[in-house]
Write a structure and sequence with these properties.
By secondary structure, the chain is of the alpha+beta class. It has helices at about 90-100, 115, 185-200, 230-240, 250-260, 285-290, 295-300, 315-325, 335-350, 455-475, 480, 490-500, 505-525, and strands at about 35, 80-85, 135-140, 145-155, 165-175, 205-210, 215-220, 270-275, 305-310, 330, 355-365, 370-375, 395, 400-410, 415-425, 435-440. Pfam families: VWA (PF00092), vWF_A (PF12450), YfbK_C (PF12034).
């Protein structure tokens, strides 16, 4: 995202996400422990401590779960703040599962803890209108004073098939030679065909392919009521065949040009990139590629949704493209996952509940000794930019949940207020700023983690799992750049038992337990 200033004083956290579009009837951690005394603890980059947040803005609205604007909260000391842009990416977890299923441990550089946590939808109370509700809770992670604090943000669900605006979707499809591998182009074609049959008559689709060059094989086409539009889309999809090298720059540039040319008034316009992101021709850097289509992104508001495929996958490039393109990424490895993405997640990107959403947690210096945010290095925002609405945040759609996990060490005998979490966003229609907040007290973290509710335990297992996979690789990504393992972290063997005991027994939870089991077998169970 543009204008985002990376801040290294945090171990940034886990946000979770389940986005939905209704056309169907679905890095390395730069952080360190942060002292909470506000006395001379410098940021990890050596800069002076950052200032406390500005007073609540008068236009800051509150969601259903909001508390008063914070005027009664104790002032936060400079190093008591943690600020990040909201994110609902899940590609890191999906790719890790694919890698483990093939008998390999994932590269630690591809493991982003927030995307592991974001892969599991939480049952937070939802607001009535656009924007967010805020829930804050936690539990003790051990006997050394550390707890896991959960900040839960959620938006109202979708309003039904007829309520969302029409969709104008430009699919940019990688047909390079590497996409010939089973589970790449064949999976893309099957998924697009299913989605085409389930979109509404007032939705429109364009198709752009790229290998060594790019081509618009289908301009923006209204699906319509007669069947002729859908037939044209199906014909274009069936003709997709793998060819030569991967000129991702040409694909993105042509895709955005096609989206602008076919932009429909009153519709939500999106570019959807489907690729293994193994660029090897033309411009291959995310910043260089996106510089070429910056006008389309900023002037026309056309954002990017990246869908990754393949056992060999350019994770870093795809993640950077979506981040800089104000969008999201996910990863699919089988038809079931593809159906969920194209029939559930993608349609949610047609509608927005919030623009440029950012969160800030202010820890009370009287009760908090240290804290660590888990993940989110690529989403960090300078504390003073929380209320600067020119600084990009996340674009969030209907039914999203975002979970941020913090490791927090309270002072001995701490009582009363522990932290206040705020979320700020722009109304998707008026662009007016809004805020909501929630508070947590020391007493709210007195329960033990493994006896907490199922959602918190699932988030904890996902975060501990990501931390363990990072640590297995050593180097810069090992346990967050050399920091100690997360407080209360079990061995992988113990984590596998915790995963097996998670409530619900749904497919997502079973998938997590299976992934941990596979990691245990590959590592011998060490943590």
């Amino acid at each position: 995202m543009r204008n985002r200033k990376t801040r290294h004083g945090l171990l940034a956290v886990a946000l979770a996400g389940g986005l939905l579009l209704t056309g169907c009837n679905s890095g390395g951690s730069a952080g360190i422990d942060r002292a909470a005394d506000g006395k001379g603890r410098q940021r990890a980059d050596g800069a002076a401590p950052l200032p406390a947040p500005a007073p609540d803005s008068p236009e800051g609205g509150k969601g259903d779960a909001a508390t008063p604007g914070g005027r009664d909260d104790p002032p936060a000391a400079p190093d008591h703040l943690s600020t990040f842009a909201l994110d609902v990416d899940t590609a890191s977890y999906g790719y890790a599962r694919r890698t483990l299923a093939e008998g390999r441990l994932p590269d630690p550089a591809t493991v982003r803890p927030e995307e592991f946590v974001n892969s599991f939808r939480q049952d937070y109370p939802r607001p009535d209108g656009d924007g967010f509700s805020v829930s804050v809770d936690g539990a003790r992670a051990g006997d050394d004073g550390w707890s896991l604090l959960r900040v839960g943000l959620t938006t109202r669900g979708d309003d039904g098939e007829s309520a969302r605006p029409p969709a104008a979707l430009t699919f940019v499809i990688d047909v390079s030679g590497s996409m010939a591998e089973p589970g790449r182009l064949d999976l893309v074609k099957e998924s697009l065909g299913i989605m085409t049959d389930r979109l509404r008559p007032d939705d429109s689709v364009a198709l752009v392919t790229f290998s060594d060059t790019a081509e618009t094989v289908l301009p923006m086409t209204r699906l319509g009521d007669t069947g002729a539009g859908r037939s044209r889309v199906h014909t274009a999809i069936s003709g997709l065949e793998p060819t030569q090298s991967t000129n991702l720059e040409a694909g993105i540039t042509t895709g955005y040009a096609t989206a602008v040319a076919g932009k429909e008034r009153g519709a939500t316009n999106r570019v959807v990139l489907l690729s293994d992101a193994l660029a090897n021709t033309g411009e291959t850097s995310a910043d260089g590629i996106l510089d070429r289509i910056s006008d389309a992104r900023r002037e026309h508001g056309i954002t990017l949704f990246g869908v990754g495929v393949g056992s060999e996958y350019g994770d870093a490039l795809m993640e950077r493209l979506a981040d800089k393109g104000d969008g999201h990424t996910t990863y699919v490895s089988d038809p079931e996952e593809a159906r969920e993405v194209f029939c559930e997640q993608l349609p949610a990107h047609v509608e927005l509940r919030a623009r440029d959403a950012k969160a800030q947690v202010a820890f009370d210096p009287e009760t908090v000794e240290r804290f660590r945010l888990i993940g989110y290095e690529n989403r960090a925002v300078a504390d003073e930019d929380f209320r600067d609405d020119s600084v990009d945040g996340g674009e969030i759609g209907p039914g999203h949940t975002v979970t941020a996990l913090y490791a927090v060490r309270a002072k001995p005998g701490a009582e009363g207020h522990l932290a206040t979490a705020r979320v700020r966003w722009l109304d998707p229609e008026s662009r007016a700023p809004r805020e909501a907040s929630g508070r947590v007290r020391a007493a709210d973290l007195e329960g033990t983690l493994w006896r907490a509710d199922g959602g918190l335990r699932t988030a904890a297992v996902a975060a501990y799992f990501a931390d363990a996979l990072r640590a297995r690789g050593g180097g810069a990504h090992s346990s967050a750049g050399g920091a100690a393992p997360l407080p209360g972290a079990p061995s992988l063997a113990e984590l596998a038992r915790r995963a097996d005991a998670l409530p619900g027994g749904g497919e997502q939870v079973r998938g997590l337990a299976d992934a941990v089991d596979r990691a245990v077998r590959l590592t011998g169970g060490a943590g």
